[in-house]
Amino acid sequence: MKPETFLRAKIRATLGAATAAVLLLAASAARADDAAKILKSMTDYLGSQKSLSASFDSDIEIITPELQKIQFVSSGQMKLDRPDKLHVRRTGGYADVELVYDGKTISVYGNNAKSYVQADAPGTVDQMIDAIQARSGVGMPGTDLLLSNAFDELVASALEGKHIGLGVVDGVECEHLAFRGPDTDWQIWIETGAKPAPHKYVITSKTLAGAPQYTLRIRDWKTDAFTDADTFVFKPPAGATKVDLDSGVMVEFDELPPGIPSGAKK
Length: 266
Prior knowledge:
Helix content: 25-40%
Strand order of the largest sheet: 7-8-9-10-11-1-2-3-4-5-6-12
Strand content: 35-45%
Largest sheet: 12 strands, mixed
Radius of gyration: 23 Å
Number of strands: 12
Order of helices and strands: HEEEEEEHHEEEEEEH
Oligomer: single chain
Number of helices: 4
């Protein structure tokens, strides 16, 4: 190859690589913008609905001291009537628990314990979720999707976000987004089209060996108004005992069974 021919080829290769790098950076920025835009469309859609109901399945992982990963699963239903009513029922292999909030009082009933706790909590669902997590220390993953300021809460600690592409969850085509934070990474799959509801939500811990995950799969989204007047009314079952807020009933709501391996963490 002549020197001048080689030089021209080298210049073309260098320019091509530089162009590709610029396009890649532009594409990455666009995908980040897409991620925020898609996430905002989801939070705006959910936040604009007066009534919401859905069914869900959840998986929570723990890591034993021997670095074995164990997964616990449960299923449930959620009913929300903004701004101040929420009803959640969750059943798993180790817990059967129900939370009812009527805008004034929060009630949590553990069927296995045959007992319930109640606390005055006048206000909104947002305020109730903050209060119960602060007072009991119980984590409620997934409730951040229901908050009126869900977008701000979700991206508050995000360092970056990406629009990965399309995915299918339970037969529903979804946009797949991935976000990174200092302690956790999380992914979410949001339905395409006019009703951008979330169908899968995965939170990965980066501070624990084995990177345990919490996975929430959500289906049967509905926005119909509730016609049953007792939907958000708690009626203690016959024989149920009222106990203190720091009792085992709240432990049941935390999704982990009693007697998990010593030192295991979620």
